[in-house]
Amino acid sequence: MMKRLGPILAAMLLIAAAMPAPAEGMKVISFSPALTELIWVLGAGGLQIARSNACDYPAAATALPTAGKFAKPELETVLAMKPDLVVANDLINPGVARILRQNGIRVELRQCRDFDDYLWWVGTLGELLDRRFEAAAEVRRIQEFRAQIARQPRLPGKALWVIWDSPLMVAGSGSFPEMVLRQAGMDNIAADVGQEYFKCSYDWVLKNPPDVIIWSAPGKPDPGHRFWGQLEAVRCDRVVAGLDSDLIQRPGPRLTQGIAELRRKIMEVRERAVEKSEKQEVQK
């Protein structure tokens, strides 16, 4: 375990060497729900003075005023609040970051596509917010989780992750859902498609029938539908639906919970389908 932790902790020390010591009473604004969650996990919620309208967890964070939408700060509002630090995974208008920096506000931007990106944020915020001990504990928790899932057997077959059903949009290669699916132990049937998200034709799905469907759209696919009813995964109810999107599509501290839940649900629908098939055989 210490060998695995070594590179991460070493990276945190390098980050520390490049950063100034945090000022007393630092004021932080987050425009990322995942980063807001991390700030509070690190015990620095008292330093956050505002949030985006998408930052809805933990409950205590919702008492903070909003200073814009997800990845879209309201510039005048932010400047009036005079924060020391603004964090986000990305900004819709990159020019906003330039203006904030010109006004002496530190801006940290980085996408969070996998656990390595998340651990970068843990180390960065741990240093900037003077929460090094809490950050080290979070690093250990993530590394222990990764070691645990690495020991688990891979789940057989391949899954199709449906983001939306009309038009049909699925998760492809390099997407965040694909990473989550892979961590849960199953391969993405659209892994060879060179797009993170793509509009998918019915013909493509029929030519590449999945063993399991992860359904992020509302409801569930109807077995009586002229298309969905052609898929064995739908007819046999090997469909995982109703997952908490905040757990499986938000790259924050609770992602470990979401991955574990997804794996459990996949195993459940597969087992249920086998039991149903066995009962039907007995009744014949």
TrEMBL record:
Fe/B12 periplasmic-binding domain: residues covered: 27-270
Pfam families per the UniProt record, alphabetical: Peripla_BP_2
Presence of the UniProt keyword Signal in the record: yes
Keyword Translocase: no
BP GO terms, sorted: cellular response to iron ion
Protein name as catalogued: Vitamin B12-binding protein
Gene name for this UniProt entry: btuF_18
InterPro entries with a match to the protein in the record: ABC_Transporter_SBP, ABC_transptr_periplasmic_BD, Vit_B12_bind_prot
Origin species: bioreactor metagenome
Keywords: Signal
